[in-house]
Design goal:
Blueprint lengths: L14 E7 L3 H17 L4 E7 L5 H10 L4 E9 L5 H20 L3 E8 L2 H7 L7 H17 L6
Parallel strand pairs: 1-2, 1-3, 3-4
Length: 155
């Protein structure tokens, strides 16, 4: 039995899109900063940042970046639970839309849409450094782009 194990390291010189929700902008700006640090570290050739009003707009914005030629997309948002069921609908539809888009296009989309119970939880996950979920998502999309590029479509 022959086994191929493919692992990726962060892809370099790629075209990466970043879609960012303006809702909860203090958090999303911090996540964006983390993502941009990771992309700069990987010598990303082109980064296109597309801002949208809220999390529900992230999937359609990600689709447009994919159509424009991005090799991968980082989706950034922050959905914080409130007093109504709105949180659950927004979180479920956003994550579902991003996952569906990645599957139908074959283009990796890294999810940095925080879905948290309290603002403090979002603040903890958007602090500077490698624990920043924007940084982690950007690294994940770069690694996935690289790994997928190593898989032969002929097999």
């Amino acid at each position: 039995m022959h086994v191929d194990e493919i692992t990726g390291s962060p892809a370099r010189g790629r075209n990466i899109g970043v879609v960012v929700s303006d809702f909860n902008r203090t958090i999303t700006d911090a996540l964006l900063k983390g993502a941009m640090e990771a992309l700069a570290t990987a010598d990303t050739a082109q980064v296109t940042v597309l801002r949208v009003p809220g999390a529900l707009e992230l999937p359609v914005a990600a689709r447009r970046l994919i159509e424009a030629g991005c090799d991968g997309v980082v989706a950034i948002g922050a959905v914080i639970k409130g007093e109504t069921d709105h949180y659950e609908h927004v979180a479920t539809q956003t994550v579902g839309g991003l996952s569906h888009l990645a599957l139908v296009t074959g283009v990796p989309i890294a999810n940095s849409v925080l879905t948290v119970q309290e603002l403090e939880h979002a603040m903890d996950r958007s602090q500077p450094g490698r624990g920043n979920k924007g940084y982690e998502a950007a690294e994940a999309v770069l690694v996935t782009v690289n790994a997928l590029g190593q898989v032969s479509e002929e097999d």
